[in-house]
Amino acid sequence: MDEEAKISELYKYYWDYMIEKNIEGLRSLMSSDYCLYHMTGVKQYADEFLNGLKNGTFNYYSADHDDIVVSVHGDEATMIGKSRVVAAVYGGGKGSWRLQGDFTLRREKGNWKFTSSRASTY
C-alpha cells in the first residue's frame, strides 16, 4: 500500500472512531500537538476535542466519503477529505452536513499522524 492509500485509510478510521466515540483510537491517529479548527473558528487541541466527544458535546452518527485527496512531501502530507456527515453538536439537533476536512500530517516513527484539521463545508 502506498503512502497516499495509507493516509486515506487513516481518514476513514478517523471517522469510524468519531462515530464509535473511540477516544483511544482517535488519540492514536493524532500527534501530541494536534489542533482542530471548527467551522465556527473555534480552535481546540486534542484533549479538549476528545473530552467534547466523550461528554456528548460532539455526536457523530455516520460519515459517507465522497472524495479523499492526499499529497505527500517527504515526512509531511496534506489531505482533503469530503464526507457527508450526520451529527449533532453543541446541543443542536441531528442534521446532515457536507463536511470538508483539510488535514496536515507528519510521519512519526514510521507512522502517519494528524497534526491539524480545519473543518468547512463543500
TrEMBL record:
Q: Which domain of life is it from?
A: Bacteria
InterPro entries assigned: DUF4440, NTF2-like_dom_sf
Source species: Butyrivibrio fibrisolvens
The record's Pfam families line, in alphabetical order, gives: DUF4440
Q: Which SUPFAM superfamilies match?
A: NTF2-like
Its recorded name reads DUF4440 domain-containing protein
Ranges for the DUF4440 domain?
7-113
